[in-house]
Amino acid sequence: LRSALCVPAYRAALASNFATGWVVMGVRVALIPLFVIAVLDRSAAVAAVSLAIFAVGNALVLITSGRLSDAQGRKPFGIIGLVVFHIGMAALGLTDTVTLFMIASFVAGVGSGLMTPAQQASIADIIGSKARGGPVLSTFQMSADVGAILGPLVAGAIVEVYTYGTAFVLSGAIMLAAALWWALVPDTRKLHEAS
Q1: Are 47 and 36 spatial neighbours (Cβ–Cβ below 8 Å)?
Q2: Comparing C-alpha atoms, which of 191, 159, 190, 185 is closest to residue 15?
Q3: Which of 92, 118, 125, 177 gives 20 to 30 Å between its CA and that of 84?
Q4: What confidence tier does 193 reach under pLDDT thresholds 50, 70, 90?
Q5: How confident is the model at residue 191 (pLDDT cuts 50, 70, 90)?
Q6: CB atoms near residue 156 (< 10 Å)
Q7: Within 10 Å of residue 39's Cβ, how many Cβ atoms?
Q8: CA separation for the pair 172, 178 (Å, rounded)
Q9: How far is the C-alpha of 45 from the C-alpha of 95, rounded, in Å?
Q10: 114-150: string of b/e by CB count within 10 Å (b at 16+)?
Q11: 52-88: b or e for each residue (b if 16 or more CB lie within 10 Å)?
């Protein structure tokens, strides 16, 4: 773990996994049903459909983005995915129609599908084939868990004081901050090729 923490891309992966936990496992699951009922004035079934549309957007690009991140590098797909995710997530809270809400859900899903394989492959590159990976992987997972716990708490407090839109835009900004962090680190694909 100490060696992995010395790798800039590992620290960027921790940040992006924290952001993923905050948004995907936290804010998206906790706030979308409330937003649909309180702002869009629709039933919880609409929230379920939007979560399914997110999953469709994610699934449509996962395999291709994984293959391309092996061929072209982890960094471009990590950055592009986080930026697309940011756009979709920020747009969710600014929508006022179900159609736009579903489009934003799809865009967020595509962003998640673009960045997830690249992020996970970068962790595999950092660990390599001969190192013990347990502590590195568990710390990576814990970063998402922390985000999943803090995301709904902070976003919920923001909704109470401000608006749903503010909470979703802030969550999108966290994804964008992770993308900027990724932009500053070297690609890990060279580590994979060297091992």
Answers
A1: yes
A2: 185
A3: 125
A4: low
A5: low
A6: 16
A7: 15
A8: 10
A9: 17
A10: bbbbbbbbbbbbbbeeeeebeebbebbeebbebbbee
A11: ebbeebbeebbeebbebbeeebbbbbbbbbbbbbbbb
CA distance 80 to 192: 21
pLDDT tens-place string over residues 52-93: 999 999 999 999 999 999 999 999 999 999 999 999 988 988
The pLDDT tens digits for 119-171 are: 999 998 888 877 678 888 999 999 999 999 999 999 999 999 999 999 999 99
Predicted pLDDT at 129: 73
Task: Identify the residue whose tokens are 């001969």.
Answer: 130
- pTM for the predicted model, two decimal places: 0.90
- The four Cα atoms 40, 44, 50, 55 give a dihedral, to 10 degrees, of 160
Q: Specify the 3-state DSSP secondary structure of 185.
A: coil
Question: What values do phi and psi take at 59, rounded to 5?
Answer: -65, -35
